[in-house]
Every structure is written in C-alpha cells, then in structure tokens.
Amino acid sequence: MSRKIKSAGLRDLIYNRYLYALAVPAVLFSIIFAYLPMIGVSIAFMDFNPLKGIFGSEWIGLDNFSFFFRGQAWIQITLNTVLYNISFIVTGTLMSLTLAIMLTELGRNWLVRTMQSLMILPNFISWPIIGLFSVAFFTADTGVINSLLVKLGWETIAFYTDPEVWPPILVLMNLWKTAGFGAIVYMAAIVGIDKELYEAARIDGASRLSCIFRITLPLLRSTVVLLFLLSMGNIFGGNLDMIYSLVGDNTFLFRTTDTIDTYVFRALRTSGSMGMTQAIALYQSVVGFVLVIVANKVASRLDKDSALF
C-alpha cells in the first residue's frame, strides 16, 4: 500500500495532474513573455547602454527618477493623468450602463441589433485615424465646428491654441469610442439575470423603472466593481495613442493635455535615455499595482463577491 500523502496541495496536484498538464503551456507563456521581461525593470536604475546590455551598463541608483520629479511639472502631469482616467472610468461606466439597460429594455429586434453594431464600430477605429479626421472638425478656419459657429453668428473657438477646451473634448471622444463596447459587456451580464425575478416583480406591481433600480442595477454591482478594479491598474496610464493622435506636440495645449505617457514619449525622442523612460514606467506600474490592491481591499470589505482576489 502506498504511503498516504499528507499535503493537500500535492494530493490535489496528483489527482488532477491531467488538468494541470493542460495549463502548462499557458504558464510557460506567461513566464517567458510576462515575467522574464521584468528583468528590464533594472534599466530604471542604470545608465543604460544598448551596446553593453543590462548586465554591462553602469548602475546609477535613483538618478533616472530625478529628471521627472525635479521641479513642479510632474505634479501637473500626474494630476492630468489621474483626473483624465477617473473621468474616463466614471463617464464610461455610466454611459455603458445606460446604453445597456436601454437596449435591453427595447427587446430583440432589427433596430436594436443595428444600434449594437453601430455602437461597437468606433471601438475598432484606431486613434491615429480618428486624429486625422479630427483635424477636419477642429481646424480654426476651415473646420466643420467653426464653420457652423460662424453660420450661427457665434464666435469661433481656437481649438489648437486654447488648452481649456480639450479636457471635455477628450472625455467625449473617449466616450464615443469605448462606451458602446462597454455596453455590450453589461448587456451580456443583464442577459444572465434570471427572468423569473422580473416576472415576480411585475406580478407584485413593480414598474419597469422599479425593476431596473431594484433588480438589474443591484445584480450588476459585481460586474461593475470587477471592471472598475481592472481599470484601476491603468489609472496612471496616460492614453498615449489617444492624446498624441489628437494633440501631438502642440506646446499650447500641454498644460491640460500632457500626461505621463506623452511626457515620457517626448523625453525618449529628445533625450534618447531608456533609463529615464523606464524609471517613469516603473513609477506608473508600482502606483497602479498599489491602487489595485487598495481598491480590491476596499471592495472585499464592502462585498466579498465583488473582490477581484
């Protein structure tokens, strides 16, 4: 008789060995392409020379962080990054939920299917393409918006020299591009809700609006919290593709549009120091990781089922 294995983990590994074997390719893929490249984090602490490589470059400690944190610019850039991402998360969640509930309440017909297709279409258009089209709308003299304002007898807007107009523009552009795809995710969650709950509520005299607020929204809470937690990890990401495609290197707009990613991208092109850019990337990653842990802890305290881990 073979000896009884006391370790529960080892016993489970032996019992489910074929299932674990199926996971080996995914584990190896993650190790090779996600964890081994993390050795490159050490570049943030080096005067990196591509010819010498990671192990041959000079170690300079925290000097690479000084180029970003010196002066007051990093405060404004960090605030822009965080405020934009908070705006994107809040407005995107509200708009996606609203669209999902509205389309679900309309039922299944050709009009709803057509609207779904039109909603997710912007998600597949790249930001550089959108940036090219935006020039036709925002150009001072010949832009569509200013031409319309002139016909209405109103003053034109200097979009590319006035930094104050861009925060709402960027929020609206992000909504237009992402809200439709987010609505599809919430619609899938709504479809999974037991229909008998709605039937029982209607028998008790509940209105359609009451069903939305007392059944649909409460049962979507876990999905909303999960997507929020996933978004928190990228709250220090600067949406480089969107902002740079729409704004570019326009110095007039840096005060309200410059984020960490755009700042680092310019620094990489002008200074060519990979160590400095890696230092800021590490700063973003560490803060994003901490925010996810804190947000998950808060979510687990409020509702264990809503926590990510």
Automatic annotation (TrEMBL):
UniProt GO cellular component terms: plasma membrane
Species in which this protein is naturally found: Paenibacillus agaridevorans
TM segment ranges: 20-45, 82-103, 124-149, 169-191, 212-236, 280-299
Protein name: Sugar ABC transporter permease
CDD domains: TM_PBP2
The keyword Cell membrane is assigned to this record: yes
Protein's membrane topology: Multi-pass membrane protein
A family per Pfam: BPD_transp_1
Compartment annotation: Cell membrane
